[in-house]
Amino acid sequence: MSDPDPDPVLTVTTEPHPAGPTLITLVGELDFSTVADMHDVIRDTDFTPVGVVIDLTGVLYCDSAGITELVTVSQHAGNAGSPFALAGLSDNLRRVFDIAGLHEVFSSYPTVDQAVAAL
């Protein structure tokens, strides 16, 4: 039996949602060691007036570096005039957002479709 991989993994994919906005899907751990993977994708994302939704349904863990990157993305979207929303926050991540007051910074919705509809 092999040992589990000790290095956190984050998969970041980007695709257009059928309703128009760009959908960025994160799966894995969003932390100090993986945030550069997300940053690289965000750097190449076209923030248009149609908007961007980040799907966090598959995020297993998010530390302060991950939250900082989400705040940066939100600011970038705002500067570009692009609507921005988060979808699929886990109970743990929602609790962190509550404690840190991040619901004032982000619009978040239970599902991607609800986030897209809100844009």
UniProtKB/TrEMBL annotation:
GO terms for molecular function: anti-sigma factor antagonist activity. CDD domains: STAS_anti-anti-sigma_factors (cd07043). It holds the Pfam family STAS. Residues 20-119 form the STAS domain. InterPro entries: Anti-sigma_ant, STAS_dom, STAS_dom_sf. Coiled coil: none annotated. PROSITE patterns: STAS. PANTHER family: ANTI-SIGMA FACTOR ANTAGONIST TM_1081-RELATED (PTHR33495:SF2), ANTI-SIGMA FACTOR ANTAGONIST TM_1081-RELATED-RELATED (PTHR33495). Belongs to the anti-sigma-factor antagonist family. This is Anti-sigma factor antagonist. It comes from Actinacidiphila cocklensis.
